[in-house]
Design goal:
Layout lengths: L9 E2 L2 E2 L2 E2 L2 E9 H6 L9 H13 L3 E3 L6 H14 L4 H10 L8 H15 L9 H10 L2 E7 L3 H7 L5 E4 L7 H4 L2 E5 L2 E2 L8 H13 L1 H10 L13 H16 L3 E2 L10 H13 L5 H15 L2
Parallel strand pairs: 5-6, 8-10
Antiparallel strand pairs: 1-2, 3-9, 4-6, 4-7, 4-8
Length: 301
């Protein structure tokens, strides 16, 4: 197992799960539309992102298409971005649980909320867009950027296997170097019930996935996952351009983690609902951060 696969499934030095693959996210973007708008490099900071959105709009293209009507995008992907931007995310989460850290007044959450407003205001019917509509608008070229990750590659291939799509960071922090990251980790682990009558068969199956060429091909070519095991390789043809971009960021050490599993139980949906309310203009930035803080405080262990 590669190192990034181990943290969330390790307890007292023992590993208790099988990582299905490494996934990562940022903004998916249409490289062809960027070129047409004269955007030569990916935006590296909030000012460049705003300029990028303006250029696309002037060209008659919707800058963003995102599923703001669903809590999971806001509660999982956007919330995680601010957590991951902390100097030590694990320590920050422990501090939130202990009542020693605050979301209110936190620089990363303030900057994230500003990007959320820019994103929402430059979407078309953001509260009425579901995943299928997001893929359709992005795939047809009516929208240029979408919050998404490597798991979107099969859906994009179904629309257009030759689509000029890529993955770029979400630039909401002040410093360019803080923004030059993608968010990545293992989102699914398989475990074996120790009391199962099929335990030996399950072990045989997992070993087949890792050590047999057919099993390796299923993990990479079919699921489009970046391998969580160092003995499995993945080429561009297997994982697609989104996966290849994430792989290059992993190799360069330019990734931050995914921490949803560390939140208090049941909070992700509440976080998403609060962010939705803010994006739609129903609460202020201060009220948003207070709601996020109150949700964590009332739910912490």
């Amino acid at each position: 197992m590669v190192d990034i696969s181990k943290a969330d499934i390790t307890h007292e030095g023992h590993i208790y799960g099988f990582p299905v693959g490494i996934e990562g996210y940022g903004y998916m973007y249409r490289a062809d539309l960027f070129k047409q708008a004269g955007i030569e490099t990916a935006p590296k900071n909030p000012e460049e992102l705003r300029d990028c959105a303006g250029r696309l709009k002037d060209m008659g293209v919707t800058p963003f298409v995102n599923t703001w009507g669903a809590w999971y995008q806001a509660g999982m992907f956007y919330m995680n971005a601010a957590i991951a931007q902390q100097e030590d995310p694990y320590a920050f989460i422990e501090g939130l649980n202990a009542g020693e850290n605050l979301i209110e007044g936190n620089e990363a959450f303030i900057r994230l909320s500003e990007m959320i407003k820019l994103d929402f205001e430059n979407c078309d019917s953001p509260l009425n867009t579901d995943f299928a509509a997001q893929v359709s608008k992005f795939g047809s070229g009516t929208a240029a950027m979408a919050c998404g990750g490597t798991w979107n590659q099969p859906s994009l291939d179904d629309v257009d296997p030759g689509m000029e799509a890529g993955l770029i960071p979400m630039p909401f922090m002040d410093k360019d170097e803080d923004n030059d990251v993608l968010y990545a980790g293992v989102t699914t682990y398989w475990v074996i019930n120790k009391d199962s009558a099929a335990k030996d068969a399950a072990k045989e199956f997992l070993n087949w996935l890792v050590y047999d060429e057919e099993g390796q091909s299923f993990l990479v070519a079919e699921l489009k996952n970046i391998p969580a095991f160092s003995n499995i390789t993945a080429g561009t043809d297997s994982i697609g351009p989104l996966g290849q971009t994430l792989l290059s960021y992993l190799e360069e050490g330019k990734v931050k983690g995914i921490y949803n599993s560390r939140y208090p139980a049941g909070t992700v949906q509440a976080f998403g609902t609060s962010i939705q309310k803010f994006a739609a203009g129903n609460i202020s930035q201060e009220q948003l951060l207070k709601e996020l803080q109150d949700t964590w405080t009332s739910s912490r262990r």
